[in-house]
Structure formats: C-alpha cells, structure tokens
C-alpha cells in the first residue's frame, strides 16, 4: 500500500499544525496598529504648544488686555441698573456702588412707562430698517461694479476714492453735507442765483432719516466694498471660464458664480448688522440734534447719553443700556440661527 505525502504508516494524517501568520497578514496587522499609536503619539502637550506659539501669544496679549479692560470689566458696572446709584455718597464712584441702595427692577419699570423711551426705540428701529434696505446692498453693488473693471489701475483709483470717506470724522461728514445741502449750501445758492427758491435739507425733520442714511452710505460704503472685493478675489477664474464655455453671459455668470461666492460674507455681515440694530449711531445724530429737533433725531444712544451724562441719572441709563445689550444678543443668536437654516456658517458654526 502506497503512502501519501504527510501520512502516517497506518494511513492516518497527523493533526493539522497551527499555521504561522504570513507576511501579508502581519503587514496588515501592523498597518492597523500604526494609526492608533500615531494618533496617541501625535497629541502635543500644552507645554509644547505654549513653547511653540509663545511669539504669537505674546503678540495677542496687548489686544486681550485692552479687550478685557474696555469691554468686559465695564460690564460689572451694570449692577447700578438695580440700584439708585449716587456717585457722591462716597469718595469715588467705585465704592459708591457698595453704598447705594438697591431698588430691584424699579428702573426697568420706569423705562417701560416712559413714552420718550418708546419714541427713541421707534426712531431707532425705523432708521435700522431703512439703512438695512438702502445701505446694505450698496457696497455689494459697488464691489461687483469695481470687480468688473478690467484695468487694474482704474479699479485701484475707484476703490481708493470710495474708501477715503471712511477715515473722515462725523464732524467733517456733517460739515460737507451742510455745505452742499444746507440753506447756505452750494445747491441752494445756485438755485437762488437762477431765480429758483432755495431749500435747506439739513433742517428738514421729515427727510432726516434719509439724510443720515445718505451720510452713512457716503462714509462707510467703501469699507464694505473692500470686504466684498476680498471675497471676490478668492473666486477661482476656472468657474468663470467654465460658465462662459457653457454659454453663460455676464449677468448669468454674476448670478450663478459671483453671488454664490459672496453669499457666506453677506450672511456674516448681515448677522453682525442685525445684532447692531439698536446702535444706529451716536455722534452723527448728536451733531444734528439741534437742527431737526429731538423728535426726529432721538435714538437709544442719544437717549442714554441725555439721561446718564446730562441729567446724571446713571442707574436709569444703565438699565436702558442693559436692555439694549440683551436685545442685541438675542438678535445675533436669532440671525445666526437663520443663517444656519440657509446653510451658511454665520458668526459661528453649529
């Protein structure tokens, strides 16, 4: 009887030996273990990161110190909104907080019963809505117009001219408008020289909201142009070329390529603008307060200044400012949530 290979003399086979892992199996197992080790080894301790980024941290420390000093430390002073604060009961204003009597929500009740507060709130909301409709789209349109200019030198000159008024103070801006649209301005004098009756737009209370909107556009539209032009610079030219090869004209490329590229920036600036809805301006309205009257120019910022600084009613002014800040936070959160629903990042991610 012939024996097969690996069989015993009695014809039975020996028990199968445990096979050694092949080289391929060992290599695969090693590859599976490498990411775990690399992941644990790739974590950098905070001491190493601190030593690595110490130069950047040192550069940000002055900014953090200024932010804490001027933005967060003053928040502690909001406690006077719940007091009948009197700065003269002590040697300085800080220790006077501990000696002023507590009145609870009395200042807030007084605020909601004050008709002047509601008039200032109404003027603020009307001016915000008007500036949102008339002012916010203008930088976008101007950025698209400048971006369509082919010659770089013409584009640079136009951008510089539009951005220059951003550096002007509100005193200078109001003065320029006074010299143009005032009763003794260039337009009124020219009309009178030709037999027409002049006008004084700077003292017209009914047109005051449009006047301050035009001033804001002339002064700050250039800053928005730079922001949108920076977003347009990141758009790949391949998208425009592909759209042109598909037969899209200039307007179609603007609608399907340019505007979608600006959409995240528009959403971000819109969220920030909505959060700043109750702060339509202070110096601009204060400078023109006497010309058009309190009824047309009174906003929440000037209302707080008039009560807190001129009349010395610090607790009431603090209560108004605290309510204004809380409403601003709610508006930011709501607008940012709406941006998330539209698929945009907004101020922060989900």
Give a verbal description of the structure:
By secondary structure, this protein is mostly helical. Helices cover 67% and strands 0% of the residues. The chain is built from 18 helices and no strands. The chain has helices spanning 23-42, 46-52, 54-72, 93-99, 106-112, 115-134, 137-147, 152-163, 170-181, 186-193, 208-233, 237-245, 250-275, 283-287, 289-292, 294-297, 300-310, 314-341. Helix 6 packs across helix 11 (208-233) and helix 11 crosses helix 13. The longest helix has 28 residues, at 314-341. The N and C termini lie far apart (80 Å). The relative contact order is 0.09. Residues 1-7, 16-21 and 34-39 have low confidence and may be disordered.
